[in-house]
Amino acid sequence: MNGWNLAAAVLLGAGGTAALWGVTTGPPARRVIAQNMTTSAVCPALLLLSQGYGRPAYVDLALLLALLGPVGTLVFARLLSGDLSDGRPGAWGLTWTAAGAGTVVVTALCVAVGPGRALVKLLVTGALLIGGNVIASRALAGGFRGVRGG
Amino acid sequence: MLIVVALLLVAASATAAVAQRDPARQALVLSFMGVLLAALFTVLQAPDVGLSQLAVGSALTPLLIMLSVRKVRRRGRAKKETE
């Protein structure tokens, strides 16, 4: 096992356990936040795995997750809006922590990969991950009229 | 070790999904499990299966469940009003 795989295991274990705890306990608002956090924990882990196994094709998985994870969260934000309206979940500390972790992972991988097409793919994945995370958090916090109208 | 971590998390989240009572909360845990299952498939060197699991598990299944939950709730509310 090399360092990349070890980092992926730590990220998957810590992020997965925290998200599992959050998604199974507490009020609905907390559960949706934890569900949103899953994407930002697993997506960098998948990126690290692709580097650890030495297979650039595995980046596709992280790309798809970065694209679809926020979509899933938006589904919950839209359809659970009745349950969420009494206590608007705002977890900006967690959001920016997750975004920072994603940035660190993507930067480390960019340094390891070097310039080329793979670098562009990594940067696109990172931008999608962080952008999607911020958009989903904003929707959960009631930042969008369409979502709030429910 | 990676396989053990992913397997344990999938098993724990699947148990938690069964243990929840409310369908909406079950859908939340289920979407979490779908993402983790995709990670498990990747760890087991089957990224193609993981790709389809990711597409179905992270967005599609929760959407279907939540739509049906909403429809059932609305129907129940309408029936209560007419009675």
What does this entry look like structurally?
The complex is a heterodimer of chains A (150) and B (83). Chain A is an all-alpha fold and 150 residues long. Chain A has one domain. Chain A contains seven helices and no strands. Chain A has helices at 3-24, 28-53, 59-79, 81-84, 92-113, 117-140, 145-149. In chain A, helix 2 runs antiparallel to helix 3 (59-79) and helix 3 (59-79) packs parallel to helix 6 (117-140). The radius of gyration of chain A is 16 Å and the shape is elongated. The termini of chain A are far apart. Residues 146-150 of chain A have low confidence and may be disordered. Chain B is mostly helical. Chain B has one domain. In chain B, helix 1 runs antiparallel to helix 2 (23-43) and helix 2 (23-43) runs antiparallel to helix 3. Chain B is elongated, with a radius of gyration of 16 Å. Chain B starts with a helix and ends with a helix. The chains are: A mainly alpha (150), B mainly alpha (83). The A-B interface holds A 1, 5, 8-9, 12-13, 16-17, 19-20, 23-24, 28, 31-32, 34-35, 38-39, 42, 45-46, 49, 53, 55, 57-58, 60-61, 64-65, 68-69, 71-72, 75-76, 79-80, 83 and B 1-2, 5-6, 9, 12-13, 16, 19-20, 24-25, 27-29, 31-32, 35-36, 38-39, 42-43, 45, 47, 50-51, 54-55, 58-59, 62-63, 66-67, 69-70.
Topology:
The complex is a heterodimer of chains A (150) and B (83).
Chain A: H1 3-24, H2 28-53, H3 59-79, H4 81-84, H5 92-113, H6 117-140, H7 145-149
Chain B: H1 2-19, H2 23-43, H3 47-82
Helix pairs in contact in B: 1-2, 2-3
Mean pLDDT of chain B: 89
Secondary structure category of chain B: mainly alpha
N-end to C-end Cα span of chain B: 58 Å
Strand content of chain A: under 5%
Helicity range of chain A: over 70%
Find the biggest chain interface: A-B, 40 and 37 residues
Please, what is the average pLDDT of chain A? 84
How many discrete domains of chain A?
Answer: 1
Rg of chain B, alpha carbons:
16 Å
DSSP, total strands of chain A: 0
